[in-house]
Amino acid sequence: MSVLALAGGVGGAKLANGLAAILPPETLTVAVNTGDDFEHMGLPISPDIDSVTYALAGMNNVELGWGVAGESWAFMDAMARLHGETWFRLGDRDLATHILRRQLLRQGNLSAATDDIRRRLGIAQKIVPMSDDPVRSIVSTDQGDLAFQDYFVRYQCTPRFLSIRFEGAEQARPSVGLLAAFDDPGLEAIIFCPSNPLLSIAPILAIPGVRERIASRRLPCVALSPFIARQAVKGPAAKIMAELGIAATAAAVAAHYGDLIDGLVIDSADENPIADEGATLFATDILMRDSADQQRLAREVLDFARRLT
Ligand code: GDP
Ligand code: CA
Question: What is the pLDDT of residues 132-146, one digit of tens each?
Fold first, then answer.
């Protein structure tokens, strides 16, 4: 039996890491958002793929929440001295990944480069981009349209969020690896990681064919809420929801995913306020503080999914 997890960066990587710890390695595919990808200083940057890859390799930077553990910043310091661009931080170790990806992309697509890098790092699970075609998230704000990393990193999500669109998504095809996961006769469950629903999961669902494949499923599809007590665990999800006039609740997540999911995992703290939103609810401690939490939650999520079968 196999499992497909849809993931963004940090929230996705945490649950993916828990799933990786408890499932036989060949049975897990993590399909990752590439709407945040961009080219910076000539280098192809795939922030969410790298977050998942570093987490599964056990080399993610827990303090920063992104990048590589034990990072050093000599490159950034030298760049600052040269008055080069420093708004997007590239650590010395992280830089090696981007330079290798640049090299690999001369010979193959993003799927191949991602697969090559994860093998080099000793990761046995499959990590696949949502698509090999370029999709770029563009955030419409009160200060105009912003490329995703400008909104997220350069302006620290301060402009007011109006909407997001995924340029190129309409012409994009799901990656071969994502299609293979959907078509696997042994596929047991689809898990939406507790990633940002609007910034990280929405681009994956915007690829033609993905929604349809999930909608026509004969297997349980379970999402995890990124919210605990009306707050995002990390990042701008609650701020964005507030700017859209939506409360950052598990109920809003259930309404957002609608018929696409059969079950929603929410925090025990949010158990009482949530009314029935169509999806079956399972309440537990959804804060992943460490790898023990990741594994416990992953196990609970899979058990929940199996009960929905
Ligand atoms: P990004 O691409 O790096 O921004 O990361 P994601 O979209 O994958 O994840 C961001 C979301 O993960 C945020 O909305 C957080 O609230 C959520 N998140 C982070 N850590 C946890 C956690 O431990 N538990 C839960 N339930 N959500 C989390
Ligand atoms: Ca991201």
Answer: 999 999 999 999 999
Residue-wise DSSP of 109-144: -HHHHHHHHHHHTT--SEEEESBSS--EEEEEETTE
Would you state the pLDDT for residue 275? Answer: 60
| Residue ID of nearest Cα to ligand 1 atom 26 | 226
Q: Which atom of ligand 1 is nearest to the CA of 286?
A: 26
How many residues does this entry show for the chain?
Answer: 309
Give the model's pLDDT for residue 278.
75
What ligand is nearest to the CA atom of residue 198? 1
Where the chain has pLDDT below 70, the residues are 272-277
264's CB contacts (< 8 A; 6+ apart) are 222, 223, 224, 225, 250, 253, 254, 257, 277, 279, 280, 281, 282
Q: What is the position in ligand 1's atom list of the atom closest to the CA of 289?
A: 23
| pLDDT score, position 273 | 62
Identify the pLDDT of residue 271.
Answer: 76
Sign of the torsion angle spanned by Cα atoms 8, 175, 94, 13 = positive
Which ligand 1 atom is at minimum distance from the Cα of 152? 4
Atom of ligand 1 nearest to the CA of 226: 27
Q: For 2-308, which CATH superfamily applies? A: CofD-like domains (3.40.50.10680)
Delimit the domains of the chain by residue range: 2-308
Pocket of ligand 1 (CB under 6 A): 7-12, 14, 48, 51, 194-196, 199-200, 224-226, 232-235, 237, 286-288
Q: Report CA-CA distances (Å) from 33 to 6, 21, 24, 37, 195.
A: 8, 21, 23, 9, 10
How high does pLDDT run on average in the chain? 96
Pocket test for ligand 1, best of 52, 61, 127, 233 (most atoms within 8 A of CB): 233
Token readout for 155 is 């302006």
* Residue among 263, 266, 268 nearest 249 (CA): 266
